[in-house]
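Example record for the data management plan.
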Amino acid sequence: MSNSFEPRPRRWSRVPRRVSLSDIWMLAGLAFWIGFALLPRAESFPVPCVFLYITGCPCPTCGSGRALFHLTHGELLPALSANAFMTVLLCGLLVYSLYRLLVFWGLGYQVQLKLPQALPRLIPPLTVALLAAQWLVLLRAC
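Corresponding structural encoding:
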């Protein structure tokens, strides 16, 4: 029987305070989010879809601007009806941006998750597949 002490794995690790590219994107995203939240209410969304205007059919991201507008005004159901894929993606980006804000300027600690090694390779094709599925849903209305 050995008396060796094995420390428990830490879920949190201290990160140095330096500005990275993801921090710059996080700040830009939060500024964009706040800017959209300050837009006044309008009957129609101020930025029309050029693809829809030219072809008459919606593009894969049609409604993402309206979804962002509704999300920043606290309206989840209209955002989901505008573009469900982008609504979920924008909510995920908001959560990640707030997490990065806490890591960099608040806590200084970040969570270490043990994810499967195949996950980073699966994210791009899964994103493309979900975007294609969203486009098929939008094309049914065309």
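Summary line stored alongside the record: The mean pLDDT is 76.
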